[in-house]
Task: structure prediction
Amino acid sequence: MDSLQSVALILLSALVFLVVITVLVGVHELGHYLLARLCGMKVDAFAIMMGGRRSTDLSRLLAKPLVPGSILWMVALASLCVLLAANTARLVPLYLASLATLGIALPVWVATRLAALYRLRAEQWAKTMGLAWVGSLGLLFLATRFQNVQPSQVIAILGMASLVGLLVLYYQPVAGRGEDAPMGEGSLQIDGSSVPVRFRPLWSRRSKDGTEFSMLLLPLGGFAAIRGMHPKPDGSETRIPGGFYSKPPWQRFIVLLAGPFFSVAFGVLLFAALYGTVGVYRPSNSPVVSSVLADKPAARAGLKAGDRFVRVDGQPVQRFYDVLRVIREKPGEPVRVSVLRDGKVLNLEIVPEASSGPVPVLGPDLMPTSELRVQAQMGVPIPRELVRLAPAQAFREAAMAPVAMVSGLLGIVRQPARASEEVGGPGTIALFAFEATKQGLVGILALAAGLSISLGIMNLLPIPPLDGGQMLVAFVEMLRRGRRLSIQVQNLVANVGFVLVLLLVFSVLAVDMGRIVGRKQNADQSANGRTPRVEAPADRR
Result:
């Protein structure tokens, strides 16, 4: 794949990533909106995407005009062209220089323009950008200890941090907006006077019941703003007409539950539709090698895709389970296998390796049983075949996806070491989006289904401000027969939840960064001068 094709695929996968996330969050928030209206709560706004564009013209207040923005865009386009040309010609210094221009120099230029518009001092915008850069480098250190990290990776990570810093600066006027202030309303202190600044949606329409439906600027999700969701020291939130806290705890509980329920249900329906139209991969008991994992015992022994097992450890083979049953009991022991290849029988010796931890024991139908133990593995994935399911069977199969995800989470709780391999955040999702984009519409829909279920389940974690944490508070108040918790307890719960969520976010970002930076192809980048390419995470079996 040449540079232009690579860039096109990366841009397309980024678009897929943003659209999928926006749709899934929209479905989640739709659940909150519908149940809130059903319970008589007022919803002030229902928005797709986040942020908004600044509608207030501040350039008229400048002492001298800024350099036209078109020049900035021309420099950015020229830098991108140089980047692609340097990548094609393997000119590493020029490639790094153009990457630094796009990821660091141009964002600093944009930051100075925003500072001029908002009358920010140099140390203010420099502090914002500096904190973003230091935070990204801190995550990189936690993930890699700066080992085997290439200069281009550091610049790319700083570039992503620059984007975060610029967003913080752009929305500086609404940073101090009060909880009950109108959406998108802010102000700036310019020459000693307070200047109102408004951020408006790209599109909006107000319904008869007062809800503003809008499409915002940044494709990063959405929200349903239910009236009166902010606790007050004097408890006045319970007296707001149509407010969230003016309703009994059981109604608040189901409104909070509706978001995760819609997410899980949407994912299940997507999976069911795929299973019924495209099909689902099921284990096949055919004793034929479908593929061989690189640098695993089977590959080292010379086994190849297409080989058919004839005998294993002297025993005849009729199905793949016959091979699996023998191999898994012999970690570190040589096992003689006979395979049929191109009409000839070959005798090979495989020394299977023990799994890194307990894994499910497969039954004769190659489906997992409830038993978990350390087993020997040779690096040959279970053969699979595509089977189209009847509607009822497709729905039953899809309904097991949330159960499997919850089981996986419980497994991580029992074995925290698995988290670094099985947990991922935006970076991991972006990698999956890249692979899904290459697979076409089916891959994208399958990705959306899995992410939707994950979104619903993760939001049920009993940690404020997640839905599950707020549901826990509502449940406690149900036990108290509707009596509100004191504002001190509410603040304590909120603060503890905020810290836990922050730790979770930083941990996931660190895992993401380590996973992306540590990929094999990146290790060769400095030697051949090519840009890093994204590949699917290895299928661990």
User: Anything to note?
Assistant: Residues 60-197 form one domain. The mean pLDDT is 86. The first helix runs from residue 3 to 38.
